[in-house]
Design brief:
By secondary structure, this protein is α/β, with parallel strands linked by helices. It folds into 2 domains: 3-161, Rossmann fold, CATH 3.40.50.720; 168-260, N-(1-d-carboxylethyl)-l-norvaline Dehydrogenase, domain 2 (Orthogonal Bundle). 50% of the residues lie in helices and 16% in strands. The chain is built from 13 helices and 8 strands. Helix 9 (165-192) crosses helix 12 and helix 12 (226-240) packs antiparallel against helix 13. The radius of gyration is 20 Å and the shape is globular.
Amino acid sequence: MQTIGVIGAGRMGMPIVGHLNRAGFRVVVAERDSGRLGDIKERGGQCLELAEVASQAEVILICVGYEHEVRELICGPGGLLEAARPGSIIAVMSTTHPKSMVEFARLGEERDLIILDSTVCRGAWAADEGTLLSFVGGDEHIVERLEPIMRAYSSDVVHTGGVGTAQASRAANNQILWACLVANHEALALAQTYDVNIVALRQALLSSSATNGALAAWGKQTMAWAEDDMAIVSEMAVESGLSLPQSGVVREVCRALKPRRYRLDEYGR
């Protein structure tokens, strides 16, 4: 596999372009925002139209923001189902519902395309460093073919099972992430009202039983996708017949927290 297509060079996709180029792949990129084209070229990517990416790439990574964009790219007029070369692998990195991935995979089989999910965790700074955690769902032999590509931008690659399981795994990761972020705000806001040295406390907590990834990354989370993540968790829970009351509360808190995150003086007031 020599030519890798990237659709969407945003906050996550842009550094991935650079990592793939440094790993020796030819990288072709479809990006709608013309303001990003210069950065793509500096990172070694070749900017092409979607149809050209689809016809040239052996593997296509979809890195757009929302599921409706993924669906349009795959199923819409002139989309990948029509334009991708037979035998291509299309890996969806964007957050989608697991059942949507199963649907996309079935549609791909009808066109001799392999569509699977390859989600990433650890945040934008890990994308910059090339130390993302990649979950991938699909047949083992396809995952083996993809692993050298994922290793270009990931320090850890985990095969989670069949198609859709990478999306479910990322949902579980983010479900815990946002719960921890809310808990961190509540605990530190309470401690601050008692004049605790918050900087010292946070460092101490990182070495205690209260440690968590959101606390280690304190101040870095944009919460850009928190609502989208928790909406999918909620939908998955309903479909599975599970009651997840804490997740419902976390979803509501995240809505209020996003515009004033890390402002402990404002939390809970």
